[in-house]
Specification:
With about 475 residues, the protein is mainly alpha-helical. About 60% of the residues lie in helices and about 5% in strands. α1 packs across α7 and α15 (about 295-315) crosses α16 (about 330-345). It is globular and about 80 Å long.
Length: about 475
């Protein structure tokens, strides 16, 4: 297996004005989709990021060390962004949207290496409107940086492999390695696959390439040791924060790939699965005819398919499940490129039809990424709690509900159920929970004393089933059983 001949260093600029116009329109649509309702209420994870990044810089570092599942780069950048633009929903989400715009530009450069210009624009349209990339492209979490630096790392690696003796390109790749691992620990897997492929293609340069990748990754070593070291030395689990991730079911892997394109309300996802399987079959036939896998194709197959499969299997059989689609945005980009490779094997008319079908499917799925369909209306919920509570305390069973209510109430309004004293538990209080976590109200202690005041269901009809529901209970005082 050999890497293709060296290419020029210039940017892949669309050659016609129509292509340039389409590129601008697609990136504009992608930005508009991510800015849509960007002032909508924060969820609990976003509140965590904003409140952490709003503190003094020394506290940002200290608290980021305690947030062990995530490296610190996003928190640091968000801290300085808030210093300039403030901490409102629109202000902080603008940073993620800006990173998403850069991601789309880098992704287009990457896609132009593998497929024709019209197909690269079609694939870019999928990325611009993908519910997966739109949802995480707006959220105030590290995932916009994960997508950007994963794309930049893939592009830099391809350019470095074009000229493995060019120190400028090798240095750019090493820099993206460092940026990626400072944003996401799982980035090490992508970099490892790149090094393995480089060793196969350029054996004479293997040591140099491996050392550069190691140097980029080792910049994170001091942080990793300080953040994880004490827990590991004490024999404790250093990643208790992700204990909510359970072993993925059998269909989780296929759904991770399909979630890129979404699921329109009136269509069955099995049709999308059949279409993707048909494309996979066409691509395998083309490889059988070639009797070899081009090195660039191998890169996309390794990152886009082998990496998610490995993470899935580690989560099923390993000691700690880590499989989550938001952690696999780099592989999701590579998978979209693999889809482009498969479409390129078809006759032009069939290829255009397939691309159009995927674009229409993705565009129809876009509303499922919009915040009013994915996040509770916490301002409305908090206002109702303020009206209903009187002198009663507000209680929750998890931080998912407590943190947004406290944030929008601007006070420590909510008490955790486990923190209530015996007297408080027997008194009157309001209990707010998502429907999947309301089991506490069905226990013998509370069931005879509770009634539902109201609930909130959000999301467009057809999308609503995927959303959760927040329920507000009123718990009456416990009667003194010694009283006649």
């Amino acid at each position: 297996m050999r890497w293709p001949a060296a290419r020029g260093s210039e940017l892949a600029i669309p050659s016609t004005r129509i292509e340039q116009f389409v590129l601008v329109v697609l990136i504009g649509l992608g930005l508009a989709a991510r800015f849509y309702h960007a002032s909508y209420d924060f969820d609990g994870d976003e509140i965590f990021s904003v409140e952490l990044a709003s503190r003094r810089f020394t506290e940002v570092i200290t608290r980021s060390l305690a947030d062990r599942p995530h490296p610190p780069l996003h928190n640091i950048l968000l801290h300085f962004w808030i210093q300039v633009f403030g901490a409102s929903e629109m202000a902080v989400r603008s940073m993620g949207v800006l990173c998403s715009g850069l991601f789309l530009l880098v992704a287009h450069q990457l896609l132009r290496r593998f497929v024709a210009s019209w197909m690269a624009l079609g694939l870019l349209g999928i990325l611009a409107l993908s519910p997966l990339f739109v949802y995480y492209g707006q959220q105030v979490r590290p995932y916009t940086l994960v997508a950007l630096f994963a794309a930049a790392n893939l592009l830099a690696f391809c350019k470095a492999m074009d000229e493995p003796t060019n120190w400028r390109r090798l240095g750019a790749w090493a820099l993206t390695c460092a940026l990626l691992v400072y944003t996401q620990y799982l980035g090490v897997l992508q970099i490892g696959l790149e090094v393995g492929l480089a060793i196969v293609c350029w054996r004479g340069q293997a040591l140099r390439l491996a050392m550069l990748a190691l140097a980029g990754c080792l910049t994170l070593a001091p942080w990793f040791v300080v953040a994880m070291g004490p827990a590991v030395a004490a024999g404790r689990d250093p990643l208790t924060h992700i204990g909510w991730i359970s072993k993925p079911p059998a269909l989780a892997l296929s759904w991770m790939f399909m979630s890129i394109f979404g699921s329109p309300p009136d269509l069955q996802t099995r049709w999308l699965l059949l279409l993707l399987c048909a494309l996979g079959g066409a691509y395998l036939i083309s490889l059988a005819r070639r009797r070899c896998i081009p090195a660039e194709h191998a890169l996309l197959l390794l990152v886009g398919i082998a990496l998610p499969v490995a993470v899935f299997l580690l989560s099923v059989w390993g000691p700690k499940p880590i499989f989550a689609s938001r952690q696999l945005l780099g592989p999701a980009l590579a998978f979209v490129a693999v889809v482009g490779l498969a479409i390129a094997t078809l006759p032009t008319a069939f290829g255009v039809a397939m691309m159009a079908a995927l674009l229409v499917w993705t565009a129809a799925s876009l509303p499922e990424a919009f915040p009013e369909n994915t996040k509770p209306p916490w301002r409305t919920i908090t206002a109702r709690l303020a009206e209903s509570r009187g002198s009663m305390p507000v209680v929750a069973s998890e931080g998912w509900a407590r943190d947004p209510v406290d944030h929008y109430a601007r006070a420590g309004l909510v008490t955790m159920l486990d923190d209530l004293t015996g007297k408080q538990r027997s008194g009157a209080f309001l209990f707010v929970c998502r429907v999947a976590k309301c089991a506490s109200m069905e226990t013998p202690e509370f069931a005879p004393r509770q009634r539902i005041l109201t609930d909130w269901v959000w999301g467009r009809e057809g999308i609503r089933a995927k959303s959760d529901k927040v329920v507000l209970y009123e718990v009456m005082p416990q009667l003194d059983r010694g009283t006649n």
